[in-house]
Design brief:
Radius of gyration: 22 Å
Strand order of the largest sheet: 6-7-8-9
Order of helices and strands: EEHHHEEEEEHHEEHHEE
Low-confidence stretches: none
Mean pLDDT: 87
Structural class: alpha+beta
Number of helices: 7
Shape: globular
Length: about 240
């Protein structure tokens, strides 16, 4: 007689940006311990990097080896939160300090515990127009960069200006010049010939595209337990959904 084995449920969801159906399972106690260990990191920059590395490793394990890093960031975040909900429950709690000041300039400072329901986290906005016109002859056809591409942009950057340029480059799908289309190009050529020569107005067009990319957003109204002021809470980005 063989010893009984606990079967792990197989679940499905539709990724919000790519609209692909993907199968996943809850993460195990062992995998949960890895996440908890990551959260002990004190350095904020290192913590953010460790969390994203762990999220990718965990989601790929829980989706039976899918290349999750090739999906857009919002898809990765959404999928991880679905896995988290299936593993530890739909709700998580965060503490938010009331920043309101009275007439004397004294800050309230009360810590308010706010419950976040993962099922109430929604994708904000719609995909922006992918064509960014630079001038009468030159336009860029944009895409939502994958997690892998964004991570490479960060790893290949020496400073803040490098990060901005490399991130923009990661989102360019095609270069349109008159009747010609370029979709097989080197990143260095794109950066050296176009991106570093952009004017402020042209950069604003690219910024508008990035600002329009949908992201996960949680909204909730809560009343401060001390001063009774009403707060409109907005939580975005994966790091802010961790316990």
């Amino acid at each position: 007689m063989s010893f009984p084995k606990l079967e792990v449920p197989v679940l499905k969801c539709i990724l919000p940006v790519s609209q692909e159906e993907i199968k996943y399972r809850p993460y195990t106690v062992k995998e949960d311990k890895i996440l908890n260990l990551v959260m002990t990191e004190k350095d904020e920059a290192k913590l953010a990097q460790d969390i994203m590395d762990s999220v990718i490793a965990l989601t790929e394990a829980c989706t039976y080896g899918q290349d999750i890093a090739s999906y857009p960031m919002a898809d990765v975040e959404f999928l991880f939160l679905q896995i988290k909900a299936a593993s530890t429950g739909n709700t998580t709690k965060k503490i938010y300090e009331c920043q309101l000041t009275n007439d004397a300039g004294e800050k309230c400072g009360a810590d308010n515990v706010v419950e976040i329901d993962i099922n109430e986290i929604k994708l904000s906005g719609e995909l922006p127009n992918k064509i960014v016109k630079l001038n009468d002859e030159l336009s860029l056809s944009m895409k939502v960069p994958s997690f892998k591409e964004l991570r490479a942009a960060l790893n290949n950057s020496k400073d803040t200006s490098d990060i901005a340029i490399n991130t923009m480059a990661a989102a360019v799908d095609m270069v349109l010049s008159g009747e010609d289309t370029y979709n097989d190009f080197e990143m260095d050529d794109l950066i050296d010939n176009i991106l570093i020569n952009l004017t402020g107005k042209q950069i604003d067009g690219l910024k508008e595209y990035f600002e329009g990319i949908p992201l996960l957003l949680f909204k909730k109204e809560f009343v401060c337990k001390k001063c009774k002021s009403v707060h409109q809470l907005e939580v975005k980005h994966l790091l802010n959904f961790f316990d």
